[in-house]
Design goal:
Blueprint lengths: L2 H38 L1 E12 L1 H6 L3 E11 L6 E22 L3 E24 L6 E21 L5 E24 L7 E17 L5 E3 L5 E3 L2 E17 L1
Antiparallel strand pairs: 1-2, 1-10, 2-3, 3-4, 4-5, 5-6, 6-7, 7-10, 8-9
Length: about 240
């Protein structure tokens, strides 16, 4: 191979390598832009929540307390329309009794048996927001499902570590949701962190559920369970914060 041919070969190899590097860089840059756009359009809500049972549910159980969270993805550049997904875990009552660890051990080792009742709603739907100003109202709607769970667990009297647990009753039903609230920017310099104050009405279908005192202990270790069944409507009051990703 002549010197001229060698120079041409080296130049061709360099050009091909540079082109491949440029393509890889362009691909990486495109992925980076997509990820940056996704994060800029995404936010999460974390709130403490109170459930206020309505109608038949309100006659059978008391207030519930817990946490809820939502993920929002803006469907337009301004954030007027978003897709919203919610989930919550609400405890609406518990009871506890002290007993011997076992018949063999007798009363020398005592444990606590705690029974807790939960509502776990999950739903998704659109949200319409006013994205500017000191107070930014929004409304949203959704459909999904919710589960009523009652669980009993045995824990140590002092370390409170669960030794064993069992689900006493679990039932699921359809739920539709309508809610409204306001976002208030926490600082003037950034709007990625906002106070969130809202209320949601959850219209649930019929389900079976327990309340504190629904489980009665019988001789010989047996239990008697008295379940309620009704529609499951309640209002959820939420206070927390919205954070941009």
């Amino acid at each position: 191979m002549s010197r001229t041919q060698m120079i041409k070969a080296v130049m061709l190899t360099t050009f091909v390598a540079a082109s491949a590097t440029a393509q890889d860089s362009s691909t990486a840059s495109g992925r980076s832009r997509l990820l940056r756009s996704f994060l800029q359009r995404s936010s999460v809500d974390i709130t403490v929540s109170q459930a206020r049972p309505q109608d038949a549910l309100g006659r059978n159980i008391g207030l519930g307390y817990g946490v809820s969270g939502a993920y929002l993805y803006q469907l337009d550049a301004r954030g007027i329309w978003s897709l919203r997904a919610d989930a919550a875990a609400l405890a609406y009552g518990n009871d506890m009794k002290r007993s011997a660890f076992s018949e063999t051990v007798g009363g020398r080792v005592q444990v606590n048996t705690r029974t807790t009742n939960y509502i776990v709603p999950v739903f998704v739907g659109p949200q319409l927001s006013w994205p500017t100003g000191a107070i930014r109202p929004y409304v949203h709607a959704g459909i999904g499902g919710q589960t009523f769970v009652t669980e009993s667990s045995v824990e140590g009297m002092y370390d409170q570590l669960d030794l064993a647990s069992s689900v006493n009753l679990s039932d699921a039903t359809f739920v539709w949701v309508a809610g409204s609230g306001v976002h208030i920017p926490i600082t003037r310099r950034t709007t990625r962190a906002q106070l969130d104050l809202s209320m949601q009405y959850l219209g649930g279908g019929r389900a079976r559920y327990l309340a504190p005192g629904s489980i009665t202990d019988l001789p010989g270790g047996a239990i008697h369970v008295s379940a309620f069944e009704s529609t499951t409507h309640y209002v959820m009051v939420r206070i927390g914060a919205r954070f941009g990703l």
